[in-house]
Specification:
This protein is α/β, with parallel strands linked by helices and 252 residues long. The chain is globular. Helix 2 crosses helix 4 and helix 6 (150-160) runs parallel beside helix 8. It has helices at 3-8, 36-51, 68-73, 78-101, 124-132, 150-160, 194-199, 207-215, 230-235, 247-251, and strands at 16-21, 55-60, 107-111, 120-121, 136-140, 165-170, 175-176, 188-189, 191-193, 220-224, 242-245. The strands form 2 sheets. The protein has a 9-stranded mixed β-sheet with strand order 4-3-5-2-1-6-10-11-9, sandwiched between helices. Strands 7-8 form a two-stranded antiparallel ribbon. The chain has 10 helices and 11 strands.
Length: 252
């Protein structure tokens, strides 16, 4: 993608997006598990995006069921805990797939761990072909290795599948200089460079993911997932949160 094309993506709808969802995004107000209402809302918005001709890939976490880091903190072997977390992401991916298919949206789940009875193994060329055919592709089980987060999986899959932007849905309407729930004077940023995110230690994504996006000039939009219609507007190219870009694009 040329520099001009990247600049244009901030002004018009994207052609292909990767939506990064945390597992916690699916739990709603219950504090655990999967909230059918949240699942319904997500599936409805993704269907609207597909109707506009935008290719949609999804990377989903598993924190609403099990977090590998939490398990390791409690004394469990980190690799074993992370593999449990990967399996939790598969549960969430299958739930989202079902919600989409109930709305007649063709969907495929691909996992970094082989579970052929329930999902396809991740094959990059096959994933791209699914997207070209208009299918939503949900990537589960992270990258298949412990010690790596689903943020890193989102960054990696976005590069491999040639998406235009990572849309990371959160509980706040962008990136702030501090926690806005704690600090009323926290500043909200409209645009940031990757270097600013790293130097200011803004917890947007983990540092491995941010570095990978920086090295490959992959834009990231951080937005409030829970505001009705935000996901659709983000996919249409509207800046509904904080956009993270290469420093050269911010200066231009």
């Amino acid at each position: 993608m040329s520099e001009q094309e990247k600049q244009d993506t901030t002004q018009k709808r994207y052609k292909r997006v990767l939506v990064k969802l945390s597992g916690e995004a699916l739990q709603g107000t219950a504090g655990y598990g999967i909230d059918p209402g949240v699942l319904d809302s997500l599936a409805t918005e993704i269907k609207r995006i597909r109707k506009e001709g935008v290719d949609v890939a999804v990377v989903i976490g598993g924190g609403n069921i099990f977090r590998g880091v939490a398990g390791a903190t409690a004394g469990m072997d980190r690799a074993s805990a992370d593999h449990m977390g990967m399996l939790a992401t598969v549960i969430n991916a299958l739930a989202l797939q079902d919600a989409l298919e109930q709305r007649d949206v063709p969907t495929r789940v691909q996992t970094a761990l082989e579970i052929r009875e329930v999902a396809e193994p991740y094959i990059r060329r096959r994933a791209i072909r699914h997207l070209e055919k208009g299918r939503v592709v949900i990537f589960a089980a992270g990258i298949g290795n412990p010690y790596f987060t689903t943020d890193t999986a989102a960054a990696l899959r976005s590069m491999e599948c040639h998406v235009d932007v990572i849309l990371k849905g959160t509980q706040v309407d962008g990136v702030y200089s501090a926690d806005p729930k704690v600090d009323p004077n926290a500043k909200r940023y409209d645009r940031l460079s990757y270097i600013e995110v790293i130097s200011k230690e803004l917890r947007v994504m983990d540092m491995t993911a941010i570095s990978l996006c920086r090295d490959n000039d992959m834009p990231i939009l951080i937005f409030n997932l829970h505001e009705d219609g935000n996901l659709f507007r983000a996919a249409m190219g509207e800046q509904v949160g904080t956009l993270i870009l290469p420093a050269s694009m911010l200066e231009g």
